[in-house]
Amino acid sequence: MSKYILPASFFGTVFGCAVLLKNHVTGGRCPSKATIHGKTVVITGANTGIGKETARELAKRGGRIIMGCRDMEKCEAAALEIRGKTLNPQVYACHLDLASMKSIREFAKRLKQDEQHVDILINNAGVMRCPAWKTEDGFDMQFGVNHLGHFLLTNLLLDKLKESAPSRVINLASLAHIIGKIDFEDLNWEKKKFDTKQAYCQSKLANVLFTRELAKRLQGTGVTVNAVHPGVVATELGRHTGLHQSQFSSSLLSPFFSLLVKSPELGAQPVVFLAVSEELEGVTGQYYDVMTEKEPATQALDEEAARRLWEVSSKLVGLEEEGQYGKSNSSEKDQSKAAQTHRPSPGPAVSAVGL
């Protein structure tokens, strides 16, 4: 029997540490009991994962929920499920493909026409470590969906958000931003060898830089914007990672990995916290690791990079150069022109899913 004691002790210790670590990183449930009756919430990528659970929780709190998704069949099913479980009839599915500038503009136009106000915008949708696919407009899929799509959508809804003030914008970022680097000379991976991991990290760093620059431009408007890393969550987002592609990883590592990740329901709690918490009224331009405010990586604090990213992004998505959109310098115009003339065929369709 003694020969089994050491292995049993080892695995018991690993299991115990994993459970303790999981309890630590989950962050628990949103402590605020605030309701949001009369408020309109727009959530991208809300048919699954964190987005769906965020929609469910905010519907329970009385909000009017607009779920923006690419896959309308899944979105309608999710909206129906949420209406049934929360008894809130004001949960709606709307088409939104963040890999298409046309779709984003149509979605924003409909919201501005149909909704009296937009009180909370949650930029949740994302893709992670997919192959070298391109969006409908020729952008790298991860940079295009994770950053440019939400950049355009947020800007198109700014007037509505200002009219609805106090209002909030929540951008789902990731701890991956700490190893991200913005390559202004090749944002769309057209000159260098494509690295799906670095492409993802670049897009997540862009989320944090966008958050900080937008907060600066919205000072005094009553609109706040914050970024959040929700933790490690079991969602469809990781379907392109090696863990799901290797039989060894799936069979041997997955059980241990599952001990370290939290459910989409718990993953949504930091987002709900930023959306409803009374203590965050007026807080803007911050980065949250789960529900704790933290300083982001050094490169995410670079004000010049944030300003330049804003101007380049504004040109790439076709926003007018006036007011809050800022002005572009000559090098950025060249980058924009190159992006506009290069329009390769889009890769396989990608659903916008929660982080």
TrEMBL record:
<keyword id="KW-0732">Signal</keyword>
<comment type="similarity">
    <text>Belongs to the short-chain dehydrogenases/reductases (SDR) family.</text>
</comment>
<dbReference type="InterPro" id="IPR036291">
    <property type="entry name" value="NAD(P)-bd_dom_sf"/>
</dbReference>
<keyword id="KW-0560">Oxidoreductase</keyword>
<dbReference type="GO" id="GO:0052650">
    <property type="term" value="F:all-trans-retinol dehydrogenase (NADP+) activity"/>
</dbReference>
<dbReference type="Pfam" id="PF00106">
    <property type="entry name" value="adh_short"/>
</dbReference>
<feature type="region of interest" description="Disordered">
    <location>
        <begin position="321"/>
        <end position="355"/>
    </location>
</feature>
<dbReference type="InterPro" id="IPR002347">
    <property type="entry name" value="SDR_fam"/>
</dbReference>
<keyword id="KW-0521">NADP</keyword>
<comment type="pathway">
    <text>Cofactor metabolism; retinol metabolism.</text>
</comment>
<protein>
    <recommendedName>
        <fullName>NADP-retinol dehydrogenase</fullName>
        <ecNumber>1.1.1.300</ecNumber>
    </recommendedName>
</protein>
<feature type="signal peptide">
    <location>
        <begin position="1"/>
        <end position="16"/>
    </location>
</feature>
<keyword id="KW-0443">Lipid metabolism</keyword>
